[in-house]
Amino acid sequence: MSDLLAAARHAHSNQAEIEGSIVCGCFCCMQTFAPTEILAWSGLDLSNFDNPDAASAGTALCPRCGSEAVIGDKSGYRIDPDFLARMNEAWFQRTIIRKPAPKT
Ligand SMILES: [Zn+2]
What we know:
- The chain is an alpha+beta fold and 104 residues long.
- It has one domain (2-93).
- It has 3 helices and 5 strands.
- The strands form 2 sheets. A 3-stranded antiparallel β-sheet has the order 2-1-5. Strands 3-4 form a two-stranded antiparallel sheet.
- A hairpin with a 5-residue loop joins strand 1 and strand 2.
- Helix 1 (2-9) packs across helix 3 (81-93).
- The structure holds zinc ion (ZN).
């Protein structure tokens, strides 16, 4: 399960990684698509305003469902239906609780 938790980190602040990938997948809707299909990125918020690394690190929004659940193959994970299904099960259905960033 820890590999899935590690993989989930690639779904945030992943702009450079996504843009360097050949194929991306969303573990919310479990679709795969090319990075060029991603039209929207979530921007900076106050929680990372002081982080210089965040300036070029937007978070990809899924072009199919709008979720921040996109991982590119440059992350080192093979983006295929099996991987996305395992991520979906772990992340949205069972064991991992996603903590929202504190709003300030
Ligand atoms: Zn999606």
